[in-house]
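Dear support,

I submitted the protein below through the web form. The confirmation email said the job was done, but the results page showed an empty box. After a refresh the structure appeared. I'm attaching both so you can tell me whether what I see now is the final result or a partial one.
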Amino acid sequence: MGEAVGNHPTKKILRVLNGEPVWPLPIWVMRQAGRYLPEYKETRAQAGSFLDLCYNPRLATEVTLQPIRRFGFDASILFSDILVIPHALGQDVRFVENEGPKLEPISSEADLSRLANELPLERLESVFETLDRLKTALPGETTLLGFCGAPWTVASYMIAGKGTPDQAPARLKAYRDPAFMEVLIDKLVRASTAYLIRQIDAGAEAVQIFESFGSALPPALFERLSLDPIRQIVAGLKEARPQARTIVFVRGGGVHLHRLAEEGIGDALALDWTLDPKTVLADLPAHVATQGNLDPLALVAGGKPLSAGIDRILSAVRGRPHIFNLGHGIVPETPVEHVQDMIDRVRGAGA
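What the results page shows now:
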């Protein structure tokens, strides 16, 4: 994968991840394959359960390609879910329609002992087959992205057994039983590193690490439960596959951006929608690549709010290595025509 001339990639996303400013900005959006697209809903109905869709290479390839066919995004991200890792490790994971994921909560050493010590990669072969199919099915200019959830975010689901508003069950567990949390986080670091390495081998050119619940952590826990595990995953991936590129997304982690940048954790840092790019980027080194950060609800609103949000980002990032994206995932009620409006405005920005 990866068209290149010598060591210089020609794909726009990879150029940015190598620290090169590209204009007009390359663009993709988080959750771009999903419920806002009518064609996704049709394919989803064929699959049965959500996990069945994730584990069906033919259908997972189809839904990954749908937004590329419709919009021509500069990157295509593997259709899967962050909870395939605990599922592969042996935790019971289900997705309930209109409710989301339901897991058998883990809370004791006995629960931990029932999970595999190392990630059984063979349980995820269908995911890697999807990547293998995508690398030949995608247009030559489209970057193929893989991903995983950051250990803290995944652990929050594993402990609570579901998504929770402020990750209170996992935070409380971290305070009351730090040894338990250390074992779980370490297990997820090893599993996530192995998973990303295998994704790169299957055809992904870059990967994104999603720390969706970073904002729940107080400073006393952030280093141990979020920053250090992400650092370990990126280092392990780079050691094994030096050509791999990484995007790190810590939602609510704006106060920690300088730490991430100074330590070189990730080839690009994704910004959530609460951050003002002009203010944030003024304090980041010019070579640090970034991604984001349109409010997903500005995309839903369309019209003047959408145009203003896009223009604010474009004016702030001009001359820097930046990938246009949302500040979090696209929401199901997003009008399809608003997505096209966004793409047209980003790509129509003056040279």
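Response: this is the final, complete result; the empty box was a page-load delay. Residues 1-7 have pLDDT under 50 and may be disordered.
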